[in-house]
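Escalation from tier 1.

The customer reports that the assembly of two entities below gives different structure tokens on two consecutive runs. Tier 1 could not reproduce it. I'm attaching the input and our single run for tier 2 to review.
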Amino acid sequence: MGELAALFAPERVAVVGATDREGSVGRAITENLLADFEGTVVPVNPKRDEVLGRPCVASMKEADADLAVVVVPPSVAVEVVREAGESGVQHVVVITAGFGETGSDGAAREEELRSVAEEYDLNLVGPNSLGVLSTRRGMNATFGPDNALPGRMSFMSQSGAFITAVLDWANDQGIGFKDVVSLGNKAVLDEADFVSEWGDDPETDVIIGYLEGIEEGRKFIDTAREVTQETPVVLVKSGRTDAGAQAASSHTGTLAGSEQAYETGLDQAGVIRADSVQELFDAARVLESQPLPENDEVAIITNAGGPGVMSTDAVGDSRLGMASFSEETLDAFSESLPEEGNIYNPVDIVGDADNARFEEALDVALGDENVGCVLVLSCPTAVLDYEQLARDTVSLQEEHGKPVAACFMGGARVEAAADVLEEAGIPNYFDPARAVEGLDALVRFKEISRREYDDPTTFDVDREVAREILGRAVERDEPRMGVEAMDLLDAYGIPIPEGGIATDPTEALSLAEPIDGDVVMKIVSPDILHKSDIGGVRVGVPNEEVYDAYEDLVTRARNYQPDAEILGVQVQEMVDLDSGVETIVGMNRDPQFGPLMMFGLGGIFVEVLEDTTFRVAPVTETEADEMTGEINAAPLLRGARGRDPVDVDAVAETIQRLSQLVTDFPAILELDINPLVAMPGGAQAVDVRLTVDLDELDVEEPKEKTLTEPDQ
Amino acid sequence: MGELAALFAPERVAVVGATDREGSVGRAITENLLADFEGTVVPVNPKRDEVLGRPCVASMKEADADLAVVVVPPSVAVEVVREAGESGVQHVVVITAGFGETGSDGAAREEELRSVAEEYDLNLVGPNSLGVLSTRRGMNATFGPDNALPGRMSFMSQSGAFITAVLDWANDQGIGFKDVVSLGNKAVLDEADFVSEWGDDPETDVIIGYLEGIEEGRKFIDTAREVTQETPVVLVKSGRTDAGAQAASSHTGTLAGSEQAYETGLDQAGVIRADSVQELFDAARVLESQPLPENDEVAIITNAGGPGVMSTDAVGDSRLGMASFSEETLDAFSESLPEEGNIYNPVDIVGDADNARFEEALDVALGDENVGCVLVLSCPTAVLDYEQLARDTVSLQEEHGKPVAACFMGGARVEAAADVLEEAGIPNYFDPARAVEGLDALVRFKEISRREYDDPTTFDVDREVAREILGRAVERDEPRMGVEAMDLLDAYGIPIPEGGIATDPTEALSLAEPIDGDVVMKIVSPDILHKSDIGGVRVGVPNEEVYDAYEDLVTRARNYQPDAEILGVQVQEMVDLDSGVETIVGMNRDPQFGPLMMFGLGGIFVEVLEDTTFRVAPVTETEADEMTGEINAAPLLRGARGRDPVDVDAVAETIQRLSQLVTDFPAILELDINPLVAMPGGAQAVDVRLTVDLDELDVEEPKEKTLTEPDQ
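Tier 1 run:
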């Protein structure tokens, strides 16, 4: 158990603001607590002697509680929390609303609350929370209408109303919980804290949640990574779509990070993300009750061919494969199944199958070591006793210890059988696709729990040079930088073409001379974004034309935009685009997750085809390798259609080095290397654009230890 | 009503093979028919005087029936069907199994059955069918355990077991049907026939089905197009995935067409394709009971912010948009909602909302002409009576005539309300995503029902020249053709570069001379597929080098593959690839749907990025235009990133002309124009490859009237 143990299993709970008043929140909570709590409930209310028959104390100081639930009006809530802190309570749940969710006065009040919590080192839930409940000791410290059934899922939600809906539904379905937390405004404790707590809780087998935002992305990733090596975390994070993000932002009042960052960050955190309530609970129920499969191959045993085909489609949509049976299995099926049957997967044991034939087929399939899990699929027939089939399924599942999903199709005929199955932790669905999705969640979690997270590589770089180059932006008071910052990449070991920036024609010539072959020349100006459009780029310039080309480029730029600041002309080695593939490596800084790295196909395809992939920095070698393999155009990099494969390791190293750069310098707000030309022998950054936070750079020294450790 | 009216509403049904024997199919059907049928049941069995108390006749000739249900053994089934035909019956349901599904003997028997049916012009269902039922006159001519409740959906299934499962489930859910057909082996009547029949049936509001294959693709498209202008058709077509297709093929024993052809064909047919059983019924229930929205904008009215955000995500996933309210609506919400609420969409009427506030908000939203449909979303609270909310929802839906979806979240608290809603045809879901998907199905069907199908354009082409060119393949006894068939494209008006095929160096030179600028030269040989790899392509050849280049190309080809048949060297005008976009236009012939046209991004991207789109030919102008706009790279064609837009009309015309060519010549099995270079001023086919069915070409004259009319 973690440090929040007493939040969920306190000895004495003080309800500050407890009251008998009908319809009040203070009464609802006190009643809920009094109903089943194994510990002591202490009403706190200076105006009353007793509440609901329990003696009342005047203040927290007299309560001697280890958990305080605060239901007083907002104007006095902060003071009450301070008293709680003074009384030595460590855990506080603030039900009271009227904080950050209500505008600037509320936000100020929430800030006060946070600082009081910090002063007294309080583990504070809320404010604006429905409360907390834990079935371990029967504590329902919420003002919702329902208590939860006991179970092994723990559930957090940023919406209190959603908790009331879920509990009503779950009680009906026989689904139970260990702990339930309404996160409220998350002034102190947030989702990462509960993931961490429940990760340490031997009574929590699955962590589920509904979130509209994540407070600190990197903290969440690092926490959840560790927890999900053992305990599955399944979350709905809403605001997935543009419309949803806008609604989330207006609901919680906080600036939403990009969906791209959430999608990437949640995946890196090992979270199974559900897109809907149905997906959330379908996955959670299976993860709570079924073992993980040894392999990803499923056997489908069915008495009906059509639904067998439908189920196979669902397998095709999932991470699962259709198991190929061993010779022994095929022999056994050949012997026991009628000729019209199908001994291959999906196994059709035919509509006249009785319970004995079904049981034997299941036993054979579960015994095949090529089979990781089994879907039991059945349509009602006159010769089949569904309840018996359910009992056989349950006992064979236990005997073989492999995960089993059930799709006993039907209505009234299925009810009793479904009860038997669900009692044993095998959810039954009418739709085979949902049963298969359950097995898919097991495979997904198996993959997550076996991930090995390496530390990011720390390359030997020249941080001082990088700092000096970024400093030029401050000197010029101009946040945007272009090719003039190519040396920034060089300082971090990212290969750039030979050349440099000349500030007069003679310098241009002396830069060009040592370069083998013709050169590329580009005007350098932060004020001219689309250089090609104004004739600001010259390709294939022989040495003898460099001098004139310099003057020509500068003249064109001046004519085009007389007030443009011109930093010079870049003279660069020609990069052979024909043998290479143009890629892009970029970063933009997300408010929740920090630097979000991007890799994709470059050139005009970046914008049109959006063939890109993302990771939250710092990016490890494994992650960088994954990125180069994830884009749709990955086969191009690896040598499709008889082309020479490019050096993907060099690309992956560039991603990591850029990751190190943007982690070292939080002042870099966004940066694109476009194109990074990936070639058979290496990779070269041909152009760069970045934006610097001038204020941030001014104050912040590069940190000595810059990389976030995975265990932080 | 269509010509199958008497199949579903006969006066007298003969059961050939009726019997009292316990557990037999003949008894089950007779019992089911006797249960509720309003007409007369005539058992036919020469060995019995009566069956289940009904007098039995010896043969069909004595039955005087208008529908025969055949449950005799397979050995006599064909003979019985012949007798039925002789007796003047028009409709026959063959329950008997042991036909095409059982191997070559069975297949021969099925062929016999088909020819008897043809001889007597019988509308024959099956063989290998569970039977047919219709609630109109209480006729259950199936051997399943359940009858259906009356309703306004008609349902066909290629799996009989799936029907038994669905009926058991639907009866439990209160979902009813008009007609239900187990299609069996589809020896005569197939899915298109029932779509057509139910399209004409005023008592069928929605057609649903489970299919593993479609017999005749083009017939199905043409039939369903017409029906879906009025009546929604929702289908699960399994075998979507590779695994599923394999399972379907082993289940039904028929060669499955490509999933690509099914996906394309079903969409062109106006079918709403469901991927799972849940999707099938969720869509069907809404389409059965709710009106179509006037516009695609939804208003969400909720008493809980979090679920409001989740629902907005579901809207973001759908075809729906979030409605922007009129000023009047916003004013009304401002007046009636508390300050913590949200007057914008999703409208948060806050957790303390009572029924009056909910009702008013719904009324306001439904009254806004910017709102096409409404999602009523609610979490249980102490101040809200769910049943009353359900009644209000139902009456407001009726009053405003706009579609409404409901997500009353919860369990036991929702039951009574859900009954009220479902009674009125408003399905209630725990998961807001499913409620939104229901509205999405309405919008999808609105789009389908408003489609205007144009006839394919018939271009003026030179069919005789085309025939002559294809004939060369027969002469050479070589099904594959390459650049030597460029004139085939020219004959159908598809622009090709200037040039031709030379068979000696002098001819090469005389082909090159009239061409402006340098030329491209390529070896022409059906035996050399990858010409570039062997140095068989020369780009940018000036006139003075053409003679030598000819000899060089031929020498290289001979060295590479001494036995290769060399048809000559192609001399072609250079096409400027820089200003153009390489695309591909292709066709392959699908066993079910016929010529499947493909359009996509060309070059190396075809294989790697698979940026392609498809249509079943003949392709109309509208469809060709859609194709050029559907690929991911479409913005490139239309001039992304400051490039000049290419002539997409020329591309669309090429697609149509190729569609006409492959429709005219069924002998063309596959054909790729790769690349078709799309340029600002037009499009040019630079290379072609095709495969010809030599036998087909030998026998078939091009048809006089080649285009399938949409109303066939």
